[in-house]
Amino acid sequence: MGHGHDHDHDHTHETAGGDLSPAMDLSIPDSELSPSDVSRRGFLRGAGLLGAGAAASVLASPSAASAAASAGLPHAHGPVGGGTDKGGFVWLAGDHHIHTQYSSDAQYRVLDQAKHGHAYGLDWLVITDHGSNEHAKIGVEKVNPDIRKTREELKGLLTFQGLEWNIPAAEHATVFVHPGKNEVEVLKQFEQTYDGSQLPATNTEAQNEAAAVAGIKFLASQVKARKVEGALFLANHPARRGIDSPHEIRNWRDADPTVAIGFEGAPGHQAAGIPAAYGRGGARGYYDNNPSAASYAGYPLESYRTWGGFDWMTATVGGLWDSLLAEGKAWWITVNSDSHVVYLDQSERGPGSDFATNGKHNDPVYSGKTLTTAGDFWPGYYGRTNVGAGSFSYKAVMDGLRAGRVWVDHGRLIKGLDARVRTAGDRRWDTGTPLGGVAQVKRGTSTELTLDIDLQDVPNFAAFVPVLKRVDVIVGTVTGPVTDKDSFKAPDTKVVKSFDVAAGAKSISLTHSLGRLDKPFYVRVRGTDGNRTQPGLMGAAVDPYGPKLDVIGDADPWGDLWFYTNPIWVLPR
């Protein structure tokens, strides 16, 4: 997509489907290219970013990274809907991992979760009850009327139907589809065919891994056949048990990057770390595991804990997430509540519940007992996935997620954010490449990152006003496909700049020079209140002030707050 004006000078251009430079379009033979494009193609091939092995990179499949990511997308709220305008988008806060009475270990009605989420500022959410024998038989159909009623009652909230997939050979994932007449049929067929609970116990690990890939391809086939308008997969709590190996994550993504788009950067269950004097006294996210026979042996022990509430795969600069980004793989992060039973709530499952027979618990009832040992928050109470959308609609949310136009935060650390890669000095409102996008510039062009952040000025739901104290810019070289699909390190990625935030400011505008383009790279951003930090696992030279390892039994989630953005790539054209 261009910038909506017709003139030719050298500033950043964003890649989108159907807008490839000739050097990147492999349907054009070398003999038909200009000398400069032949040179560019040679550079890209040498970097491993074109041709065999690069099919899932942001270059070979740019639409997976930046479709609809243009800064100039039109946007408008419909007659209903919330969101905040920033950087040419309407930013819609949401949560893609929520359980109800249709999960064996949860208790609330769909409407209960939705009303709380909406009251706590969410614009969209996904109901994701557990895949299981009971749910596969009756759950998808039985919950759908409740979801449709919620859509009617809360028109200012986009309520998706999904499920939490037991990924064969791995952990869990959110799977959800665009609302429509076939949503139940597609989800039911998917669950009954591909949920780990429904597969033969005699399956080998290789058979189960193949089934996971087949499940993702099935979802893509349903979109292609126009049974549903869209389907998305996001891996949940990926490091919690160590069983999501690096090669499985790569295989999911490569199975279909328009469906498999990312993983939780931070898990839900954040209240579980509140100390026992007034809480559960456990681990944030229920990350209290150790390696098992099913775990990937290469992961360090530190991977089984959260870091500032975030999953090790995301929190480690130069770690697993960065290893995927360094390949050029569009792979995004989110946060959510994983809400089952809520801390300080005063309800319990309805008496006489028979989940095994009915596939649901009876409606909750008031108990008068405060749940101090529950591990969850209501949707929207603590974590938000903020999606830059073109409008208030189901499709726009899915498009924004798929494009990676997403930033996440805990505890309402900031109010809003716009990040752009620009040609140095270009400040026009309709230029620059936003989160998830691909900026293509001529080699030698000077680029810079611009950040506009609205700081928090109202209390969060713990009754204090969060204060942003530091913003970190993280840059990594795009090195192309890895030879070892179980690689989980990106040695060229590091924090390149930290900005201290002056006390009392209402907003900040930051600019960081990215230098003259001599090789492909990506840039991402995080920020913190600065309360708990330590050098990252890759060392202080890589990450001097990263999130601190959370301690089981002493990990108050309000004690340190962070935000993270998805990346922007800068590539030669």
From TrEMBL:
Name of this protein: Histidinol-phosphatase
Entries under Gene3D superfamilies matching the protein: Metal-dependent hydrolases
Span list, region Disordered: 1-39
Classification via SUPFAM superfamilies: PHP domain-like
Highest taxon listed in the record's lineage: Bacteria
Signal sequence bounds: none
PANTHER family recorded: EXONUCLEASE, POLYMERASE_HISTIDINOL PHOSPHATASE N-TERMINAL DOMAIN-CONTAINING PROTEIN
InterPro entries according to UniProt: PHP_domain, Pol/His_phosphatase_N, Pol/histidinol_Pase-like, TAT_signal
Skewed-composition ranges (Basic and acidic residues): 1-16
Residues in Polymerase/histidinol phosphatase N-terminal domain copies: 94-169
